[in-house]
């Protein structure tokens, strides 16, 4: 009797048997680049990627020549000339002729676009004009424009826009910006980043729905937004934010940078600006603050807390080596603090045993009310590298935080690779530290 070998069972391609609209829905979860790659699977898939109502392209990383980028996008728009386009995200690099951008934006705004991002990346200002149809697109939800030219219009109507991000664009005047904001009646997230070369006037931001706003130091705004939850800004030498309504954001993310006052060696004017701003936001519940000169707030002649954050429960702060000893004054200003995240600057502390002229990080005898009564979570965001002060900092919180639930510290990758014995010693020292809270977990990453 002759035995016959069974033929291997072929794997059934069930996906290819799905209707076009379902395959299109699957391909929308992929990038444009990956969706196009499916065209080589079989003749069935050759043109299916064109059904996807999304175009996400980078003219430099995904095409050898700029002409190929323009040609590819052109074919996509030709295919969708009678259908909707849900999302268009383009990144292009300083082309001489930007008329194609104007025509493409006009095309998608007339085809019920929901998500539009145009980024012109350039070493110099490189603007492309925005078509008039954009200002009255009634389907847009997310709009992001980078280095484009806004034109004067009499009316702006963007009834569905919730996210509006405008970065380094050219504006004929402040009125067009205010029209974009007032013409977006459901706006929730606003970002305006401008250049120092612009002679920008004060911008009035009035919105009954706005929840988040991000502006840089070159945007001066007066905010009237009763539902505002999060304010993010960069400040150097001037105060650029005024909040006029009775409400206040729950979260403030503020970066004071490293600028010094020109012609003011004592930093008097800068110190006043910083204190004024921190006084204005004293009701905040979550604060993210990047400030490398804490002496501007807590000068040596006034060791006590000069600020009072009565409602603050979550704090993320950056300290440099010379100002870390002022941390107790900041913590004393936060009587209800529950979560503390510390970022320590790169050249922050000194190797154990070395001499220095900076104040020592020794406040183990200082009683800080929030550490004893409310602090539950502490994280050292910057990796431990074996410098003086780091271990003392960890030891203080473990020993004095009576209701602490978690202390998180991170080891430096370099330290782990190059100083194995030192890493082991530090790790053992951390585990041996006494803890005031029996429920405290020490997480070492």
TrEMBL record:
Residues 12-48 form the F-box domain. PROSITE patterns: FBOX. Pfam families: F-box, FBD, LRR_At5g56370. CDD domains: F-box_AtFBL13-like. Transmembrane segments: none annotated. PANTHER family: F-BOX/RNI SUPERFAMILY PROTEIN-RELATED (PTHR31900), FBD DOMAIN-CONTAINING PROTEIN (PTHR31900:SF25). This is F-box/FBD/LRR-repeat protein At5g53840-like. It comes from Camelina sativa. The lineage of its organism: Eukaryota, Viridiplantae, Streptophyta, Embryophyta, Tracheophyta. The gene is LOC104763427.
């Amino acid at each position: 009797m002759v035995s016959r070998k069974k033929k291997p069972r072929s794997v059934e391609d069930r996906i290819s048997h799905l209707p076009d609209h379902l395959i299109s829905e699957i391909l929308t979860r992929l990038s444009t680049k990956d969706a196009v790659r499916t065209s080589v699977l079989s003749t069935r898939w050759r043109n299916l990627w064109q059904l996807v109502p999304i175009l996400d392209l980078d003219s430099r990383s995904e095409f050898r020549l700029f002409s190929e980028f323009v040609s590819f996008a052109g074919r996509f728009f030709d295919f969708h000339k009678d259908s909707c386009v849900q999302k268009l995200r383009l990144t292009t690099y300083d082309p001489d002729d930007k008329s194609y951008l104007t025509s493409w934006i006009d095309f998608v705004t007339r085809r019920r676009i929901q998500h539009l991002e145009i980024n012109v990346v350039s070493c110099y200002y490189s603007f492309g004009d925005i078509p008039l149809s954009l200002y009255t697109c009634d389907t847009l939800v997310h709009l992001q424009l980078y280095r484009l030219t806004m034109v004067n219009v009499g009316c702006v109507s963007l009834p569905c826009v919730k996210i509006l991000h405008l970065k380094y664009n050219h504006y004929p005047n402040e009125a067009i910006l205010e029209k974009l904001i007032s013409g977006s009646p459901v706006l929730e997230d606003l970002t305006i980043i401008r250049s120092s070369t612009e002679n920008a006037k004060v911008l009035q931001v009035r919105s009954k729905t706005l929840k988040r706003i991000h502006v840089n130091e070159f945007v001066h705004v007066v905010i009237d937004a009763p539902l505002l939850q999060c304010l993010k800004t960069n400040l150097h030498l001037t105060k650029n934010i005024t909040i006029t309504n009775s409400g206040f954001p729950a979260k403030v993310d503020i970066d004071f940078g490293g600028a010094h006052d020109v012609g003011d060696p004592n930093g008097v004017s800068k110190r006043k600006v910083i204190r004024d701003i921190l006084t204005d936001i004293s009701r905040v519940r979550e604060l993210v603050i990047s400030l490398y000169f804490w002496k501007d707030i807590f000068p040596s002649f006034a060791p006590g807390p000069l600020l009072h954050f009565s409602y603050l429960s979550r704090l993320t702060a950056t300290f440099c080596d010379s100002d870390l000893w002022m941390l107790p004054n900041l913590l004393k200003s936060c009587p209800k603090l529950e979560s503390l995240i510390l970022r320590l600057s790169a050249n922050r502390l000194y190797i154990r045993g070395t001499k220095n002229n900076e104040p020592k990080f020794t406040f183990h005898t200082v009683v800080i009310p929030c550490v004893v009564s409310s602090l539950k979570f502490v994280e050292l965001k910057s990796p431990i590298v074996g410098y003086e002060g780091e271990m003392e900092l960890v030891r203080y919180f473990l020993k004095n935080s009576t209701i602490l639930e978690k202390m998180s510290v991170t080891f430096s990758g370099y330290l782990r690779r190059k100083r194995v014995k030192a890493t082991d010693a530090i790790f053992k020292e951390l585990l041996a530290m006494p803890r005031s809270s029996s429920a405290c977990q020490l997480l070492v990453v």
